[in-house]
Amino acid sequence: MSLVRPIYPFLARSKRWFPVRTGLKSVCLTTTRAETSGVDREEKVVIVGGGIGGLATAVALHRLGIRSVVLEQAESLRTGGASLTLSKNGWRVLDAISIGPQLRKQFLEMQGVVLKKEDGRELRSFKFKDNDQSQEVRGVERRVLLETLASQLPPQTIRFSSKLESIQSNANGDTLLQLKDGTRFLANIVIGCDGIRSKVATWMGFSEPKYVGYCAFRGLGFFPNGQPFQQKVNYIFGRGLRAGYVPVSATKVYWFITFNSPSLGPQMMDPAILRKEAKELVSTWPEDLQNLIDLTPDEAISRTPLADRWLWPGIAPSASKGRVVLVGDAWHPMTPNLGQGACCALEDSVLLANKLASAINGGTESVEGAMESYRSERWSQVFRLTVLANLVGKLLQSDNPLVCSVRDNIVSAMGKSSRTNDGTHKL
Ligand SMILES: Cc1cc2nc3c(=O)[nH]c(=O)nc-3n(C[C@H](O)[C@H](O)[C@H](O)COP(=O)(O)OP(=O)(O)OC[C@H]3O[C@@H](n4cnc5c(N)ncnc54)[C@H](O)[C@@H]3O)c2cc1C
User: Fold this and answer.
1) What is the mean predicted confidence (pLDDT) over 373-381?
2) What's the gap between Cα 216 and its chain centre?
3) CA-CA distance, 419 to 201, in Å (whole number)?
4) 83 lines ligand 1 (CB under 6 A)
5) What gap in Å lies between CA 305 and CA 303, rounded to an integer?
6) Residue limits of the FAD-binding domain (predicted)?
7) Could you tell me the pTM of the whole model?
8) pLDDT in tens, 15-37
9) Which of 57, 68, 73, 145 to mutate to test the pocket of ligand 1 (most atoms within 8 A of CB)?
10) Is the CB of 177 under 6 A from ligand 1?
């Protein structure tokens, strides 16, 4: 059952283009002609960024009969970033856009969590379904998720090697997008899904995300003869350092190590150096981790400084400006401590697509109104999760022995209560 269809059942069948209601006047999407000199292409809906949020938005719009073009700076779908964990709110969206079942077949469902100290002693363990029968947690390879989303789109929807360089809005509210290769797009509606360093967000007045003082190594260990782990998320807590691993499939295990660092450090890409540094960090920790790092192919290991941006009411700009709107990390970059960034990007995408489709197809709201209504429905959840993820990260990354000891007790106690209705499960 889809989240898209029950809300606007008639939209999924509609392939026609209707005038877009734009607050003051109606503008026909098919006949946008304003100030076209020097414009190479006119598009009704342009999505900037072909990551999880961008592709999910394009798929949701497509299922509602609305064509879009996705501008992605890379030459192909991003394969880095190893894997991520999706909770039930993410799965709800994947079901809504009909790709949940095919992804479930490929990725293991986690039964619960095991929390350990750095010497390997267990702090506690719990099952996800103890408190919430509907919880669903699976590690998913980012590459597979992106490929599956892309496979739902009509050919030519994603335009690779299309890096957005500059944005300008014109008098009638259309937006001029200039790409690095010089191509100029005139768009009636722009959806900024260009991630944590979003050009669209900067143009809208958002500040740079703030580095939170720790970085993450990530990798995907490959066991050609089958991985040996139980279907559990494993966390290991140290001082100013923590790690975790999640069996993703029969042969792959996702792992991460987060470590305090006063600065972002150099942008290291050499996998040999990344591997060496990651191993050094956990050299005295349980052997499983060292093996996982050794079994990680070069292309599946990365290091990322972590950052977020809090959407303070009255201070942060709105999620939309004119007919330009933000989705996912471009709007609400958050630290991964709750495993909710991608889940929230997915939730944004389906809600926004529904609201835009309704406006485009002649509903009661204008496009601008639909964007504002999307903002107001999503803001409290994403603001709360961004703040909570930051605070949880502060506690978990502390290197003060006393704080760590208190933390271990709190974390143990939190285990049972941290599973909330919005699907959050992590510590
Ligand atoms: C270490 C780590 C672990 C994480 N773990 C989890 C987890 O377990 N669960 C979870 O739900 N989330 C997790 N996240 C968060 C998750 O990765 C992000 O929230 C998610 O990727 C956001 O999707 P997005 O589409 O908004 O941005 P992105 O995935 O970053 O996609 C943005 C896209 O825009 C493109 N782009 C950027 N600039 C331009 C431009 N100028 N022109 C054209 N294209 C452009 C990029 O190439 C990219 O393809 C984690 C993040 C990190 C760093």
Assistant:
1) 97
2) 16
3) 31
4) no
5) 7
6) 44-379
7) 0.90
8) 222 333 333 333 334 334 444 56
9) 73
10) no
